[in-house]
Amino acid sequence: MSNRYWVSGSGSWSDDDNHWATSSGGSGGDGNLPTSSDDVFFDANSFDGADQTVTHDVNVEVASISWSGATNTPTLAGSTWFYIHGSLTLISGMVYSSTGEINLDGTGSQTFTTGGHSFSCKILINSVDGDTDCTIVGDVTTDSVFGVYDGTCDFGNYNLTAENIEFSRSETTFGSSNVTATGSFAGFGFYTGGIVNMGSGTWTLNDQSGDWYVSGGTINSGTSTIEFTQPYCFFSSGGQTYNDILFTGGSVSRIENNFTVNNITFGGVEVGGYTPEYYIKGGTEITVLGDFTCSGSVGVVPYFYGELNNGSRFTLIKSGGSVECDYIELESSNATGGAHWYAGDNSTDSGNNRGWIFTDRKYPLPPFSS
Fold first, then answer.
1. How far is CA 58 from CA 55, 82, 224, 292, in A?
2. What are phi and psi of 337, to 5 degrees?
């Protein structure tokens, strides 16, 4: 393992004759191009003027990259890929315009320090042998994919925003982080072998036609909140247990697979001119431990429809207490478990429902005072 230092300002990554030295401030030389076993440094002797640019014009595979100590606000540009077996350290005093995919695929411990930058590339944590422990330092924002496919990843309390966020064969831990999937094809994917500790923050799906898709793995929801803020979202629960779930995007939401939730709220407010509609696959069982909340208003009546699956309704289960709704429309549903399910005086029974009481809850009148 050797150290490689960038020197002489602007240039192309592949130009070892002029830009890669074996010591800080040294001279470039043939054969100095960093390899997979080399640690790469951009430091105070790398740039001799303001706004100079390093352009990576070849795929880069190195042990680590550090920009700590670099001065004069340099720019990193290019579109080729990075394969980094150790840590990647960026600084706020640089411009990150690279669109090349970042692969953190080492062994042992590594740190990704974002420097507060927003990225336009895939960022993938993919351990070579499953033993990588990756620590995130700084918020991560990219308009592409963020994926943890092997090893472990610890976000602390930093936030994550990406178009698609995926987990498999790994364990990822969040503290009070807010995690947001946003963009043209936004979604969350949870796959075989992935363990996700959601923490206490808010997980937001902020895209029309966005997906929350669980096909495997384990989700530990902690005290987190999941919010679907846009119409036409799809929630495939994967049989997991969740803390709080909010559907606030209006229009059509589709829900399938059994799940348990602490509190669940179905928005009753028109969004973008659309009245909320909730299509729940027949046979789906939703077990509510705390509160089930949904009420519309005059002219805005949320519609719950059980998409029949071999004649099965969807089922809402709550073991005790009362659920009180109003201004909703129900079709092909079953409300059970021991709780009293009051649809409300202004709600509509569109058929094939069981267990609902289509009135308001009638509270006993207080006794007359003497």
1. 9, 9, 42, 55
2. 105, -10
- Distance, CA of 154 to CA of 173 (rounded, Å): 5
| Location of structure tokens 């028109």 | 270
Q: Could you tell me how far CA 293 lies from the centroid of its own chain?
A: 25
Helix (H/G/I), strand (E/B), else coil: 16: helix
Residues in the chain: 370
pLDDT tens string for the chain (370 positions)? 799 999 999 999 999 999 999 999 999 999 999 999 999 999 999 999 999 999 999 999 999 999 999 999 999 999 999 999 999 999 999 999 999 999 999 888 999 999 999 999 999 998 766 677 999 999 999 999 999 999 999 999 999 999 999 999 999 999 999 999 998 889 999 999 999 999 999 999 998 778 999 999 999 999 999 999 988 899 999 999 999 999 998 777 899 999 999 999 999 988 878 889 999 999 999 999 999 999 999 999 999 999 876 668 999 999 999 999 999 999 999 999 999 999 999 999 999 999 999 999 877 655 555 4
> Whole-angstrom Cα distance, residue 281 to residue 146?
30
pTM for the model stands at 0.94
Alpha-carbon span 90 to 105, nearest angstrom = 17
For 342, half-sphere exposure in the C-beta direction (CA atoms, 13 angstrom radius) is 17
On whether the CB atoms of residues 217 and 193 are closer than 8 A, the answer is yes
Sort residue 37 into left (φ over 0), alpha (ψ -120 to 50) or beta. Answer: alpha
Element (H, E) at 26: none
* Neighbouring-strand partners of residue 264: 245, 292
Of the candidates 212, 325, 220, the one whose C-alpha atom is nearest the C-alpha of residue 265 is 325
Question: From CA 356, how far away is CA 324, in angstroms rounded?
Answer: 10
